[in-house]
């Protein structure tokens, strides 16, 4: 019974995610779904990333949190448009929540949309939000066993950010083991080593993101790409 209910829920979610994806694509918006366990540094990475990117591209953020708006307030300080979703205890975001939240951002015409998912490595992996890229953050302050313990989220990731590299000298975190574990279940995932706190390694990640955003615009038809490029001058 439980399995039936869950598959029906996921089926309904898939349909809305599909609509979200079409809507985002028609606007040329690159959408990033940021996932991790609590405390891996998603918000710090976002702050650091936005600080650089905001000079070059229009950014919108949807912040998922169980009860508070602490992260949304931090992101707002970066001068970008933020919409808060409080899930009131639900441990993941779903496509319907994104559809509603985005309506409040549409007028500001973001070209890049970040979604910070609820801190949880389990069910967020199952819910398609209509994103282009799934980015999973794992920090060096966590155990070496995250990839093998939560394979689904890593299998479906396009990018893995290994965060808090500044703490490596003080932990037993084994970067090579983690890279190897990711390679075994998801060889095409891009891996970046970063520190949201010191900014180390952020440049490569940010350049990569900008390229993805350009590719997204190019994937629309040539005319609208030119019109958009013209419009931004
Ligand atoms: Mg956060
Ligand atoms: Zn959940």
* Count of separate DSSP helical elements: 9
CATH class: Alpha Beta
Q: Mean of the pLDDT scores? A: 93
Could you list the spans in which at least 5 consecutive residues all have pLDDT below 50?
Answer: none
**Reading side by side through the largest sheet, how are the strands ordered?**
3-2-4-1-5-6-7
Produce the secondary structure layout.
Layout: H1 2-26, E1 30-36, H2 42-53, E2 59-65, H3 70-76, E3 81-86, H4 95-103, E4 112-116, E5 133-139, H5 146-149, H6 151-155, E6 159-163, H7 175-185, E7 190-193, H8 202-219, H9 222-232
Parallel strand pairs: 1-4, 1-5, 2-3, 2-4, 5-6, 6-7
The protein binds magnesium ion (MG) and zinc ion.
Zinc ion binds at residues 90-92, 123.
Explained architecture:
The chain has one domain: Rossmann fold, CATH 3.40.50. It is globular and about 45 Å long. It has a seven-stranded parallel β-sheet with strand order 3-2-4-1-5-6-7, with helices on both faces. It has 233 residues and is of the alpha/beta class. The N and C termini lie far apart (56 Å). It has nine helices and seven strands, in the order H-E-H-E-H-E-H-E-E-H-H-E-H-E-H-H. Zinc ion (ZN) binds next to loops. Zinc ion (ZN) binds at residues 90-92, 123.
């Amino acid at each position: 019974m439980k399995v039936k209910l869950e598959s029906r829920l996921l089926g309904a979610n898939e349909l809305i995610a599909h609509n979200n994806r079409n809507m985002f694509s028609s606007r040329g918006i690159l959408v990033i779904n940021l996932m991790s366990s609590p405390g891996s540094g998603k918000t710090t990475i976002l702050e650091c990333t936005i600080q650089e990117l905001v000079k070059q591209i229009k950014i919108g953020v949807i912040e998922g949190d169980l009860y508070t708006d602490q992260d949304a307030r931090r992101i707002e300080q970066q001068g970008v448009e933020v919409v808060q979703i409080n899930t009131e205890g639900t441990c993941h975001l779903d496509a319907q929540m994104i559809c509603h939240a985005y309506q409040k951002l549409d007028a500001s015409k973001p070209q890049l949309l970040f979604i910070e998912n609820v801190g949880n490595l389990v069910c967020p992996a199952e819910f398609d939000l209509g994103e282009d890229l799934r980015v999973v953050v794992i920090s060096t302050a966590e155990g070496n066993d995250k990839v093998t313990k939560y394979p689904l989220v890593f299998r479906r990731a396009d990018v893995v950010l290994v965060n808090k590299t500044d703490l490596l000298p003080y932990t037993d975190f084994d970067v090579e083991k983690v890279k190897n574990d990711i390679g075994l279940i998801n060889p095409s995932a891009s891996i970046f080593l970063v520190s949201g706190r010191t900014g180390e390694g952020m440049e490569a990640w940010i350049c990569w993101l900008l390229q993805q955003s350009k590719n997204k615009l190019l994937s629309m038809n040539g005319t609208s790409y030119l019109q958009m490029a013209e419009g931004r001058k």
